[in-house]
Amino acid sequence: MSILNEELNERSRHLLKLLVERYISDGQPVGSAVLAREKGLGISSATIRHVMADLEDLGLIHSPHTSAGRVPTNSGYRFFVDSLLTVRRPEQKQLSELKVHVEKERGSNQIITSASQLLSGITHLAGVVSLPKRESASFRQIDFMPLSKGKVLVVLVTNDDEVHNRVIQTSKEFTASDLQSAANYLNSLFVGHSLSQVATMIAHEMAETRQQMNQMMIDAINLAHQSVNNAQEPEDIVLSGATNLMDFQELSDVNNMRHLFEAFSQKQDIIQLLDRCMNADGVQIFIGEESGYQPFGACSLITAPYAVDNQTVGVLGVIGPTRMPYDKVIPLVDVTAKVLGEALKS
Amino acid sequence: MSILNEELNERSRHLLKLLVERYISDGQPVGSAVLAREKGLGISSATIRHVMADLEDLGLIHSPHTSAGRVPTNSGYRFFVDSLLTVRRPEQKQLSELKVHVEKERGSNQIITSASQLLSGITHLAGVVSLPKRESASFRQIDFMPLSKGKVLVVLVTNDDEVHNRVIQTSKEFTASDLQSAANYLNSLFVGHSLSQVATMIAHEMAETRQQMNQMMIDAINLAHQSVNNAQEPEDIVLSGATNLMDFQELSDVNNMRHLFEAFSQKQDIIQLLDRCMNADGVQIFIGEESGYQPFGACSLITAPYAVDNQTVGVLGVIGPTRMPYDKVIPLVDVTAKVLGEALKS
DNA sequence: TTTTAGCACTCTCTCTTGTTGAGTGCCGAA
DNA sequence: TTCGGCACTCAACAAGAGAGAGTGCTAAAA
């Protein structure tokens, strides 16, 4: 892109910007005459045509057909987003609306659903939020309940007020009081540590058979091993407003739409896609096939990781057609990530 | 419909049957000549036209336009389904496939998902299964874990191997051993009873303050009251293959499709709709607006309740365009309900 | 009375044709 | 380098013609 940046003079870049903006707002291919009429642009349509021909040679725009004006290509959008875009600050009204709605919710799941719905509601696109990574949660309390036939129900409570159940099969029968002691021991050992820390600690304990460990402790550690190590719950996302995408002409091809909705209902691929955005620092933008995900070929994806206590725990984003109002969506995604992180602190 | 049954002679009914079958398989309006060519029908197209005119007067079929053959109306479908349809027994191969796939799953959620997917997979329509009603589950074990600030985590295990969590706020602080005794007491009292029975028992216990009740028992009952009474978890459904519906011409109107998918992602209304089918004895069929649900105006819904141990616990069904192969779908829904009920027994 | 063949009629669908308008590329002059 | 002028291209629309499918009606045959 830096090559393009040098190659294009100020005027060409300005024209490209106007063209993309115009196309985003109208959805019609933009002709030279339309741009020439643009205020404050002392330039004739013929000249604009020269510039447009150059832009087309560079692969930034193209004509659907001979007499149809120009439309940005994906590279064009990319250049626009990288170098030309002037984002609007989110309107104060929206921002406060966002905060109010997100913060009035109780429970992390509620908060997240609300964030997803707000993203889709405000943009009229599809909103998506990944559930916070479990790793960041810390151990608060574990408890065991004997079920039948050596099965034990493990109840693990984390400090984000989430409760996790898991049934494990034990090698020997435990009495309720055996289990109680084991739980007490583990609670004293692990409380306050993050789950990943706990996993490490367990591995460590199991490795060295210490002298002062009695049978109860060994049992407890073994139980804990089964409970925590396999405790990775399936990741999940909350998707809202998918049907908004049905309104867009450019996506309305039946086949395309079908693949898109299959992707939405499968979730798995989208989860992976979002996962890859976790490490990014701020807003990330995938235009068309940049996401590397076929069903999103005609879509753009704007994501931002959100953090609780400076620790990135999840990702949220917006999915829409490549022709979307980037200037509004990008800052909205950005600010929503911050609001969400803030709201999850409590 | 009985009126129609008398009004129509055998031949008219046979013709209507042929017409509907033909339309279902071809999707094209059926003309008199097409039917006349039908084998074993010693009748000219002109005669057929007379009959068709009658059928049209009765509102069973109609012409999209002057020269376009006839198409069944919703009443036509209704009459067809009620009086003319000869259902095919499900193919043996499908049946065994069904059984194998459903029964190999472990855990009720898995089984249900599998049933839903099979319904949609075999019919190429949308499959839906409501999760089994909690009421039928019986109490196996309850346990309490003290959290902070008078909050108590209730873990309730039912005999269908499902675990239910709930955090309640208690009026006083309980120690772990208080809670342990309460749990023991409740377990001895309630084990084996259905949850609705348990609710009744609790209400009963609370009503009469018995002499022999000590403080622990009173506390226990109070805890149980909070735990069980409000324990109605939101009902849910498992929907599969919704995107299959995108392939149908007759549903492909963007607006229609949008409403349909909004309904699918909201779930709430569909849950209610299915709920109303719980009490029906066998397969129920809603054609077009018969379901009373706007978004399904162009769809038919075939449902059947499924039962575990002779107790109806849920409903499953198939959603598709009114033009669907009723002869195959109806028996499939029927048999799937049975297979599912059977599989859930274990 | 019922059935049938014949026929005029209607309507959609498709193909063709012409027209319009938008927009382009190129060229020569400023 | 910029600009006006101009020929050219192409999609979109409309109008018209013809084919094909299917109907309703009628009058004759069964």
Question: How would you characterize this protein structure?
Answer:
- 2 copies of one chain form a homodimer.
- Helix content of chain A is 48%, strand content 18%.
- The first copy, chain A, is built from 13 helices and 10 strands.
- Chain A has helices at residues 2-7, 10-26, 32-37, 45-57, 74-84, 92-103, 108-123, 176-190, 195-207, 215-229, 254-266, 268-275, 326-345, and strands at residues 61-62, 71-72, 126-130, 139-146, 151-158, 163-169, 237-240, 284-287, 299-308, 311-321.
- The longest helix of chain A is centred in the last third of the chain and has 20 residues, at 326-345.
- Chain B binds a DNA duplex (30 and 30 nucleotides) through residues 29, 31-33, 43-47, 49-50, 52-53, 63-70.
Compose a concise summary of this entry.
The structure is a homodimer of 346-residue chains. Chain A is built from 13 helices and ten strands. Chain A has 346 residues and is an alpha+beta fold.
Task: Give keywords.
homodimer; about 350 residues; alpha+beta; five-stranded antiparallel sheet; three-stranded antiparallel sheet; DNA-binding
Topology:
Two copies of one chain form a homodimer.
Chain A: H1 2-7, H2 10-26, H3 32-37, H4 45-57, E1 61-62, E2 71-72, H5 74-84, H6 92-103, H7 108-123, E3 126-130, E4 139-146, E5 151-158, E6 163-169, H8 176-190, H9 195-207, H10 215-229, E7 237-240, H11 254-266, H12 268-275, E8 284-287, E9 299-308, E10 311-321, H13 326-345
Antiparallel strand pairs in A: 1-2, 3-7, 3-10, 4-5, 5-6, 8-9, 9-10
Chain B binds a DNA duplex (30 and 30 nucleotides) through residues 29, 31-33, 43-47, 49-50, 52-53, 63-70.
